[in-house]
Every structure is written in C-alpha cells, then in structure tokens.
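At this stage, I put together one protein's amino acid sequence and its backbone structure tokens, which the following lines show:
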Amino acid sequence: GSVMVPTPSSVYDTVEAAVKYQSYVQRQYRDMESWRKAQGMRIPPTLDYKHENFPTFSKEELEKLDRLRPTTFAEASQISGVTPQSLVYLYHHVTGRNRKRDGRSDSKLLATEGSGGP
C-alpha cells in the first residue's frame, strides 16, 4: 500500500495546535476532576434559589431547582434544562458559602488544592 507522508506545514500546524490547546485541555481535565469529586457534595437544603443569588440562571432553572431541591450535585446535573454553566455557578456558590460559614474547611481545601500533579 501507499504511505501518506504529511506535508511539513501540516506537521507544524498540528504541533502548534497541540501546544496551544495543551493548557486548555489540562484546565478542562482539572475542571472535570473537580466536578467528579463535587458530584457527591451536598447542596444545603436551605439554599434560596432566587434571581438575586443566581443572576445567570433562567427562570426555568430556578423554578426547577426550587421545586426539586436536589441534595447533591449529581442529582442537580440530572435535572433537564439546568445548564453545565449553572451547575458550575451553583458549585462555586455552595463552596463559597461553606467556606464563609466554617473557617475550618478553608485549611482543608488549601491542603488538598496544591496536590495532584502538574
């Protein structure tokens, strides 16, 4: 069979793309890893799903979350119509709240954040 030899310009394009997107891919991977760990995290049952607290959420998202009251992020991610962006926002909202309320979780978070390789 014939062997296809890529032209040098396509090789450069491929290498350039790989270098450019490597940091993006690593960030995506870290985000996915955080999300995997976060799925079991509990969502406070007292959370107030108001537009003031979640300005980026649609009316539909807030109504569904308020009605269904997911107890974990895994449950929240199963609700149709709730976007990944909203789940991330909710996650930051909850973790930010937890940190303010309980000073001890701060030191634990800092201790685990740095580990995990490059």
Q: What stands out?
A: The CA atoms of residues 13 and 31 lie 27 Å apart. The first helix runs from residue 8 to 38.
